[in-house]
Amino acid sequence: MSMGKRLAAEFLGTFWLVLGGCGSAVLAAKFGGDGNPLGIGFHGVALAFGLTVLTGAYAFGHISGAHFNPAVSLGLWAGGRFAGKDLVPYIVAQVLGGILAAFILLQIAQGQAGFAIDGSQAGAFASNGYGALSPGGYSVAAAFLCEVVMTAMFLVVIMGSTHGNAPTGFAPIAIGLALTLIHLISIPVTNTSVNPARSTAVALFAGPGAIGQLWLFWVAPFLGALIGGLAYKWIGNGQR
After folding, report:
1. Quick one: which of 74, 101, 187, 206 has the fewest CB in 10 Å?
2. Domain range summary for the chain, segments of one domain joined by +
């Protein structure tokens, strides 16, 4: 597959992840106000993120590998599954796809009278944060550790489910459910990133607070991805 088509698949897949996952948080989580039975809430947002990866992986996995996440690309490189020369182009495509999705999401959200983004609030426009911008008020140390561990385990699941000896055709389901589980665990801590492209996309519209904390949502996922990729490379004995 040509590089142009692979990058287009990564762009569209990341676009879908941000639009579906962050869109569910912005538009549907509290639809009608707290306690409204039509709002999807915490669990619905977690599931939405998992569904975007599951459906995107089936749609684009055979074209680009369906990374949709700079940390995943880095972790797969560390695990010997991805060429280093393709890292930067993939990351650029992923970030640009996420930003377009966030921009479109903003246009949709502004169609409701009275919509406004309060950047001083935790989770504003589905942004990630720590301290005062953590949904549960978690410290920077707790947020950093959470993002490292969640991303590392995400890479372990990705590499294990796509291993040559794993059952064929089921990897997107395992990966999507893993991302759902990660959100169920860590939304209270950081609003869940494990994906620098997703964090960057919404932070650009959420205000200076989210942008000022964005460093953590690049550094911690990248560190976790390296740990997870290298760990599975060792566990799997380098097999594919």
Report:
1. 187
2. 3-235
